[in-house]
Structure formats: structure tokens, C-alpha cells
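Hi F.,

I've been meaning to write this up properly since the lab meeting, where we talked about keeping a consistent format for the predictions we share between groups. The idea is simple: the sequence comes first, exactly as it goes in, then the C-alpha cells exactly as they come out, then a line or two of notes. No screenshots and no reformatting. I'm using this chain as the first example so we have something concrete to point to.
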Amino acid sequence: MTQSLTLPVSGMSCAACAARIEKQLNRLPGVDAAVSFASESAQLRYDPAQANPQQLVDAIERCGFAVPRQSMRLGIAGMSCAACAARLEKVLGKLPGVSASVSFAGESAQLAWLPGLTDQDAVLAAVRRAGFEPLLSETEDNAADASAARYRRELAWFAASAALTLPFLIEMIAMFAGSHHGWLPRLWQLALATPVQFVIGWRFYRGAWLALRGSVANMDVLVALGTSMAWLLSAAVTLLNLPEQHVYFEASAMVITLVLLGKLLEARAKGKASAAIAALMKLAPKTARVEQGGELIDVPVDRLKHGDIVVVRHGDSLPVDGEVVSGEAWLDESMLTGESRPVAKRAGDKVYAATRNQDGMLKVRAQSVGSETQLAEIVRMVAAAQGSKAPIQRLADRLSSVFVPAVSAVALLTFLLTGWLLGSWSTALIHAVAVLVIACPCALGLATPTAIMVGVGNGARRGILFRNAEALERAGKVDVLLVDKTGTLTEGRPVLRHALALSGDEDALIQLAASAEAGSEHPLARALLQKAQERGLPLLACADFRAEVGRGVAARVEGRGLARIGTPAWLDMAMPAEARAWQDAGATVVAVSLDDRALGWLALADTLRASSAEALRQARSLGVRVMMLTGDDAATARSIAAEAGVEEWRAGMRPQDKAAVVRELQAAGRKVAMLGDGVNDAPALAAADVSLAMGSGSDVAISAADITLMRGDLRHAVDAIRLSRRTLAKIRQNLAFAFVYNVLGIPLAALGLLSPVIAGAAMAASSVSVVSNSLLLRRWR
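Output, unedited:
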């Protein structure tokens, strides 16, 4: 029986593309395909016995086209440890066309699926079948409120458990003080321990049942099994009135209370770890002042529309991305660029949501509102990166999947051997309970994701955006940094560096050249106009402007004559030695004439960013080899390399040549990062192990590179490497601590050197210690 499926297809440029895809699909056995260029879709009928949807998608993508996925970030409630996240990820991965990454630390799932194969309702149903609660309302806007609500619930459960457990603690203190007879009757102990075990501790039974139903074992299994064994033994001794036997109600109650304490502290620490998103969202205002009919009206931000005129007064934060239509102001854009200095804005300039007006007033025409703003895109990117998994986490995931069954086997072996050797099955039971309790794998599951969350969040606060956790990890292994010249090492725009006026009057030479160039959009023309403006030189009236590509421009200057500015060869002017020296140093030299009479020469060149030389020195201090790649000529490359302190450089590089250099270094076993502007460097960025895109908040393509540097400062590339290495160091510390804790703790518990109560306290402390160690990353600068 055939099945039908409609898949969207993007990237088709003409009907021939659709025909090519259709031909490829119809080659598959049991497939009948019709691809439409107009609707950008493929109508498919296939025999499930001969083909499956993934094969159809692969066939389309082999043709060089994309099948767009739908994606979403979903909050997940009810996970108790990393095994829960692994189980849910496995369940979601079984849905047709779905890929999922579930984060226990972030209590969220990053999902992508193929439309037509599944939908959002199917995803939500799968989450619920797995025993968890999907939180659709937990978007970036209210994640902090949801986290605070969960913390309050954990606090309430812990307070109730602690109140019922307190009498046991008092009795234990009395016994340590020398009292040989407990003051708390056993029936009272039963009455206090039972609600702790079965009401407050119900979550562990539910979690254990759902985990076992899904053919996995998690922390809930260990806690439920261990505490139930202690409670059942104690209840039997009490109800059968066996005074010679010990009871262990305090063990079951205090273990549950301590586990809840660990969860409470965990929730608080994880809230701090994910605070970066909440901090970003707080930057955006909730209301905006909109000009309507000559009046100012306060409008909720979520009701703003494209084209609305928003008034931003002194001290206000911008609610939208847009263009200034009138007014002047100084804006603090540090949240986007990392640059602390305010930026002047006037009519025609682009402005961005959440930047703050420090002085002045603006009227802004809204161009991007709500979820379309650059701030919203940054928040989505940070959330996705925090929820993604680094390759280093795979080891912990594999261990977590077998850890609980292995510990259960050790606990059973401890029970049997201790009972046989000591002849006391009640003592054996307590030893087994201690093994089960201390081995809870929370610390192991939190070791990697908490460090990733803090590292990614810290980078975001400083204008370094990691696309995912894998990019964060790879950046720390980089040992070669390839740097594009124009717009990366340099400012990317030429400036007038030298002027040689035959009359001796530089200002007159610059004024004439700038006036003639006023009609040109060439970068050299803009440099001359900027210099004239800096010197306060008024432009002269010109007419009959014409430009000759590759040569220069000519214009008739009122009252002066025909001015020409261009290459010395076009003007037939021989360069003096001083001008030749400027050219040899990498500058572009233009000649200026008036009515074919030589007036002088101007040298224009790109300027090195103020931070570039220092950034490259810092990179070398980290053991990173630096090489400059540029399409410019050798003279220009040599000049910039000498100024920046770059020892290795290659000039005359086409985009494909830069990519070839990347592959050459990779073949030699090097880990290569490419830093460029994301346009002409695209082939090299795609080939590199790590791609970094330079930019400012106004033009950066946030999702184009592995790492986006919001501020146009090369030092942030070095900071990204430093932050990555520091984060990886924290992950290794956390994993080592979790492993050592279990390697030491389980044998001690098996030998009876740790009581269940101490084991429970140690288990809670281990999780909190791992998260606290990750939070130390917040101090990174």
C-alpha cells in the first residue's frame, strides 16, 4: 500500500532544477514523484516496503537542494537526571524525520523535524508518553519566571520533607550525645516517615516506573529502590513488634530530604547558569511610545507593526530595529557589540532593539519588531547553543546509559555478600541502600551541560556568540588562525594617508579633489570627502561629472576649469620618488590635475584596526600560529603584515585559494580557524574547523559562522579561544570529580563505611559542587 508525502524544497532557481530532482527521486524503487518549481515542493507517493521518507530527503539533498525543517525549543519538566534526558532524546529520535537534543541542565529540548512526516502535536504527545511535561509557554521571554516557579515548588517540597524529618535528626543528635534509648517511639517514626516516603517521595516512584517502562534506569530507580528497602524493613520490624531488630526510618526519610535539598540547590545553581538569556531579555522594554496622528501613545511592544514611528527619549531603550527618520542621539550599543563607547545616530542610521539612548531624542521607523529583531535572534542563538551537546559529552552520556544497571548489580552483590559474610541481613540491606544512594549519577549528567551553559552565556554578554556547543569545544583546540586582511585586520575602508601638493597648499589640493569626487560612490571618493569634512573644507560647485572605470573621474569645477583625479598613467603624470615610496608601501596613489596641469598626488590606504597588533600578539602567546590571507597585491600585504606584526602572509588569494590553504593545513594535522567577513571568505570559512565572522551590530550575519564577533575587534577572536579552553578545562574538572566521587564512594558504601544518610548528603553535595565549579566561569574576563 503506497503512502503520500509532500516535502518543501528550497534552493530551486528554475524549472530545470525541479526536473532534476524529480528524475533523481523517480530512480528510487517504489517512488512516484512530481516536483513543482512554482510551489517549491515535491509531491511523493512511495511504497514503504521499498523506500522510506529519509531516503527521499537524502535524494533531494544529494541534488544540492534543501528540505527545510521546522524547529522549536521546548521546556521539559520532570527530568531527574541525565538518563532521563537520554531516554527522552531516544524517544523523540524514533519519530519520523525528527532530530532532538535534550539538555538535562537546561531542562529543554532543541527539536527539528520535517513537515509532512510529523508535526508539533506528535512531538508533544511523545514527550508526554515518555513521562515528562512539555512546556510550550516556556519561551525565552518567560523562562526566568518559569525557572523561579520551579525553584519555589522545590523549596516547598523540601520544607515539608525537612519538617517531617527534623525529629529523626534530633534523635540522631541525642544518640551521638550518649543517649542509648531513642526518645521517638517506632510508631511515631513510621507515621513521620511514611508521608515522606510515599507522598513527598512519590516523584521518585513515578520517575522510576516511567524509566523502567522505557527500558532504561535513572536516578529515580536508585532512590526509590534504596529508600523503599529501608522503609519496608523498618515497617516490618515495627508492625511485627520485633524490639531486638533495628529500624532505619531515619535513613529513608533523610535520604529523600537530602536528595530534595540537592535538587533545590541544583535548581538555584542552574538558574544562575542560564541567567544569560534572562539578562538579555530584560534589556528590551515592554512598551513603546508611538506617534499616531500627532500624539504619543504608549503601546505594548508585542503590538508594534512595521512602519510605526517610535519616539525614543533620553534614557529609553529602543523597542524595535529600525531606521532613524529624525533627531540625533548617542546610543549605548554595548549589549550588541561589546563596545562601551556610545555611538552617534542621526537620520538614515540603523538602530537596534534594546540599545539605550544616553543623550538626545530619536524618531525611528520600525523595520523589525518582536521576534524579528536582532536581539531576539541573539537570544535564540544563545538558547540553542546552551541546549546543544558538545562532543566531549558523549562519554558521559554513554556511561550514564549503563551506570544505573551496573550500580544496581553492585548493590545486589553487596547485599548478598554482606549478609553471607556477616550473617546480618539487615546490615547487608543498609549497605546496599548506601550503595544505591551514593551512586546517583546527577553529578555526571551535570558536568558538561552546566559548563557549556555558563561558557556560552558569558560569551554572549561580551559579544561572542557561539553557534553551538560543538563550536565552543572546537575553538579550544585551534592551533592555526587564518585572518582575512580587509575588514578584519584593517578597518575595511581607505583613508587619505599622504598628500603632495606642487603648490605647497595641501588643503587646496584636497578641496579640489573632494569636490570633483562628490558625485562618485567609490571608496576612495568617500575617503577624500571625509578628509575634506574633517578639515572643514567646503566643496566647490561642479558640473559635467563623468567617471571612467579603472581610471578615475573628471568634473568641471566652477570658476576653476576641468579637474581630473585618477591613476597617474591616465593623467600622464610621472610619479615623483616620494609618491613611488607611498605606492611601494601599499598605498593607492592618485594624481590630480586641473586643465591638464599637474597639481599633486594623493595616497590612500586602508588602516589597521587599533586592536589588531595586540590581538595577534595575544594569539601567539596562546601557541596559535597566525597567517594573513588577502586578495591584495604583495606590496599592500607586506605593508599591513609589517604593521600588524604578522610573519606569515599570502597575497593575491582568490576565495578558492583561501579554502585550499585551509585544506593544506588540515592535511598537515592542524586545527584551523578562519576569521573573515563572511562574504568573499565564504569558501574558507566553510572549510575551516572553526569559522569566525567579524562584524558590528549593524551588519553581522549572526547565524553564518560557528562564532560571531559582535564587536569589530580582533581581540574577541582570541577571547573566544581563551573562553573555549577555560570551559573545556571546567568540563574536565567536573567529569574528573564525578568519576572520582563514584569510584571512591561506591566501595566505601559497599564496605559499610558510609551510612545511607551520609551517602545521601554526599550525593547532594557532589551535584552542587559540579554546578558551583561551572559557575566559577562567570568570573572569566
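Notes:
Confidence is low (pLDDT under 50) at residues 697-701.
The radius of gyration is 34 Å.

If this format works for you, I'll send the rest the same way.

G.
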